[in-house]
Amino acid sequence: xxxxxxxxxxxxxxxxxxxxxxxxxxxxxxxxxxxxxxxxxxxxxxxxxxxxxxxxxxxxxxxxxxxxxxxxxxxxxxxxxxxxxxxxxxxxxxxxxxxx
Amino acid sequence: xxxxxxxxxxxxxxxxxxxxxxxxxxxxxxxxxxxxxxxxxxxxxxxxxxxxxxxxxxxxxxxxxxxxxxxxxxxxxxxxxxxxxxxxxxxxxxxxxxxxxxxxxxxxxxxxxxxxxxxxxxxxxxxxxxxxxxxxxxxxxxxxxxxxxxxxxxxxxxxxxxxxxxxxxxxxxxxxxxxxxxxxxxxxxxxxxxxxxxxxxxxxxxxxxxxxxxxxxxxxxxxxxxxxxxxxxxxxxxxxxxxxxxxxxxxxxxxxxxxxxxxxxxxxxxxxxxxxxxxxxxxxxxxxxxxxxxxxxxxxxxxxxxxxxxxxxxxxxxxxxxxxxxxxxxxxxxxxxxxxxxxxxxxxxxxxxxxxxxxxxxxxxxxxxxxxxxxxxxxxxxxxxxxxxxxxxxxxxxxxxxxxxxxxxxxxxxxxxxxxxxxxxxxxxxxxxxxxxxxxxxxxxxxxxxxxxxxxxxxxxxxxxxxxxxxxxxxxxxxxxxxxxxxxxxxxxxxxxxxxxxxxxxxxxxxxxxxxxxxxxxxxxxxxxxxxxxxxxxxxxxxxxxxxxxxxxxxxxxxxxx
Lengths: 100, 562
Ligand code: SF4
What we know:
By secondary structure, chain A is an alpha+beta fold.
């Protein structure tokens, strides 16, 4: 990657969050070295301020029960400082609390 | 008590018996229209003893009941049986068995409303063994209620409350099919017979999920008097797997026939739903046993010689459906698999590690490693492997029970959950026994149940009184299983689903469920012995169940803590 290029991180969303955003796939452009915390700040700025807080709560369309980064579980805010890489993919798994 | 009343979702009926699948308490619950019609025909429940000497059905009308000859219906599939009976008895509703239950498959259930099935515990085989093809009900009696006007007013109020809830609206649109893919990717759903991970092994899960499934809905469906209306009628004119009409394949069906078999052929999933409904078989168990068989084939524990020439392959819809048909008919390899994973595994040498069952029951499509309290209740309740037994999995998954304040819960913290698990389970035991739907339990204020039960029965009702009723229900179920020699603490626990050994890939990597701690604390909070799960004498006496103390004294030495 050329110096100064941005990292592209793909974020997959589901369920009511997808409905609310009108798409299931978001792309965040981040400066090299950005972390998970920075990604959510970018998503909040670019797509929807509700990305700033993702409660584990099915009552919110922005509720998230699990975060899966490149196939592995990560947790926020505990891992907010986790460094991202270009091409990373994050899945925001919604709550299924209603028993389905 | 609430079936036939103005409660929210007053339509659920339950088949209860000794489970031929697990050997302990068996039950299976279902919606539809049959339960309210049984009430309208003048009965709260039906007890059946003995075995008929030839196929019969029970005809119940306006307070009378009679066994009639079912010789012409024996051998007819469940859906056609129901249609024939409705033609014979206009305006009736029937609960019927399919040919799978006639052949005593331990994965068989009881069907109503052309494909809604009380599927678990092998209750269809109990009817099949009794040669009872159907229970037909017809009647017009109104449910006697303490204060019908108040019950109706309460209904209207809660329907208004729910109508404004976006979460309910979304559920009305999709029902359970909105998370087949996200559950595969997040780790909730089993993938590749519980040994895989969605993103790596089944990245095409979206092909069978959400709008891709919804696109096949041609008509909405609601169970009797249900304002949520999460169901739908589906069809596909696919050349290989055409289906004229079937109920929406629920998440459980889609996950176990899709994610778990790496099968992204959506038409085959609708076909599997229809096929299982016709045979009267449990889609969870049949999907599971097919996953087990493919795994055995892949590991060369069985070969084409054992499978009647079928080459079993992950994701191969044609061989999956061919196997399903053989299971329904109990033909060849189908006969080996027709009684579920545990019994199939006993017949296939070396297959134990691939056999995912809990005490004989195939678990549903919710992984204990994703929500450990689900894993706990699967392994602690008298009916093993049930996602419909309430516990703190609701909170672990980000859900709530509206109107019930609960502390926040950390998924992977194993201590301190016993009281919450017991309380939520008790409330579920009580409210579900009253005959309403789990999907309403988690979507309407709990005060709906206390208010309506009070209006219908005239008995003052509170969260506390329902908790106590739930304790009683749970204790009776547990005591029944123990008396029959089945102890939940001795259930077979499939290591694959609990992290023994931990999986190395995917979002569940490294998760090991501390079942022992969760289960001990749950039993302790119930007033049961934490090691053996036998209800304590004081608990039984406090609950007014002194008459089962003597039975528990007999089982105690046999159920010493493992
Ligand atoms: S919520 Fe769905 S399953 Fe439950 S009673 Fe209503 S339609 Fe039936």
